Structure formats: C-alpha cells, structure tokens
C-alpha cells in the first residue's frame, strides 16, 4: 500500500509536534537512515536505501551524522530528492548553491524563532550592560559584590542592529520598552513599516555610533568574520556586543583581544565559532554573558518550529511548492 505514497527522508529526531508528524504518515512513507556518521550515510544512500525520496526533513543536530549538506553529500543523494526542509532559521549547514545545482529546493523556519531568540538577545544585552554575570559568579563564590563594577543603564543608549530581520525587529520591540535608540544596517534599506522607527545607517556608521551592537544577520560567505579587528577599531571604547546569530559572523580571537584591551566592555553570546567549544579567553572572563545556544530552547517555540517545517513538507508533497523557500532560491 505504502508504495504509492511519497517518501520523506528523516534526518534528525521529532521531539515535540508528534501528532502533526504522525499525520504526515497518511500522505508519506518515512525513511529513517541507519548510518551513524557521514561516511556510512553516503554509503547507505549510494546503496539505494533512500531511492525515490521526494523530501528530506532535517534538524540542526543531524549535522552530527550527515555533516554539512554540501556538493559531496548532495551528489550522493538520489535524484528523486526535490525538497529539503530544514528545521531552523539559520541554514549555514546547507550549501544553497550545491542544492540549486541538483534541483533541490530548500526551506527554513523564519518567524517562529523570532520571539524566543529576541527574548534571549535582550537578556544578554541587559546582563552585559549591567555586569550581572560577574555579580552572579561572585555571589556563588561567597564574594558578595566583590570587584563588580557599576553597570550602565540601557535607557538612552544607542543600539546598533546589524541585520534587522525578524529577530532584529522583535528585539527592537523589546528594547523600545527600555527607551533605547535603534539604528540598523542591512544590505538594503527596509520599508518604513518594517523599520518601525529604526534609523537606517551605513555599516561604518553603525560601528562608530553604537553603544551596544547586536549581531542578527545570517552566516554565509559574505558575513563570515564581518566583525574582526578592523571593525572593532571603528567602535566606541567600551562598546557592548551581543551575538545570537552564528558564532562565525564575529572573529572570536579578535573579540577576546578587544575585551582584553577594554575596547569591548562586555559581550553576550549565545553562539560560538566552533560549538560546542568555547574560546578559553571567553570562558575565563567572568564579565561576559555566555549561553550555550539556547535562542529557541523553549517547548512552545520548538513545537512551532517543527510545525512550520512540517508545513513545508506537506506543502511540497501536496502542491509541489515550499511554504518558506530560502531567499537564495526565490523564484526557483
Ligand atoms: O539557531 C537557531 C536557528 O537557526 O533556528
């Protein structure tokens, strides 16, 4: 009976939206790989185990088995594969050009991640400005307020958002309540309704005017290390930097140096260049706020993300179109 159904390749685990996932079984047969690493995965695919799959669903952590979805991996997948539905906003684990060359349409999960990530982003800004981490570390060591410098109020400070997308805009909504003045830089200026009062500035102006810089842009070849030594030198002394996007948009070595010199007063990080490895210069610095990639680490958000990704699968199977194709493939 199942032979008439379309096939979905499951890369990763279903953790929240079980009922929705089970409902997909009415329209699709689920193929679960046995591979434990990339070499085994490629071999399994070449053996024909994934033949005829139309769609693949993948999670962020499935990279531990498949590795990056790049030319080598995509070439080993069956030609029947037309849709790759990624569960996550950032899809830097996928090479969009390789997928396009092999006629694989890719979707991600925008919007559903915005509020939870912006909540964490705000927590990091306030914590870094107010030296909360240092105070908390000292308290646990029995050193009540020892060597904890006075912090700074967010009110009246200039927040420079690099990448005013969904998360950046959700952050602005939150920082408006703290009377922060928001300036932003994107490759293209947004429409006034999306700007919602944020001031559009050039990249260098954002670096030089901001009291707090928030990195909210995707990681790709154009944004890797977009913040490094030269950019730090253009910032105000004592600037605060927060990153909930991807670690590699900022050069971590350069950040550690900028913290040591005092150029950067403090930072708040949810993401790191080599997760789960964290730079020792960050780990040993009690003034910085460090969180282990928890931007969407909430029941409700994780469920909403799965549902969004499954909507993409359902749409691909029933209409031949994705609900949220990645921008690189718009019009494919
Ligand atoms: O990091 C989380 C995501 O990309 O959704």
Structural notes for this entry:
Keywords: NAD, Oxidoreductase. Residues 123-295 form the D-isomer specific 2-hydroxyacid dehydrogenase NAD-binding domain. The structure is a single chain. This protein is α/β, with parallel strands linked by helices. Helix content is 36%, strand content 16%. It contains 14 helices and 12 strands. The protein has helices at residues 18-24, 38-46, 63-66, 71-76, 96-101, 114-130, 132-140, 166-176, 192-195, 203-209, 229-233, 252-261, 280-283, 299-319, and strands at residues 6-11, 28-31, 53-59, 83-87, 105-107, 158-162, 181-185, 199-200, 212-215, 239-243, 264-269, 289-290. Helix 6 packs across helix 8. The two termini are 33 Å apart. The structure holds glyoxylic acid (GLV). Glyoxylic acid binds at residues 88-90, 113, 295-296.
Question: What is the fold-level CATH name, i.e. the topology of the largest domain?
Answer: Rossmann fold
CATH architectural designation of the largest domain = 3-Layer(aba) Sandwich
Order of the strands making up the biggest sheet: 8-7-6-9-10-11-12
Bound small-molecule species: glyoxylic acid
Beta strand count: 12
Total helices: the number is 14
In total, the number of domains comes to: 2
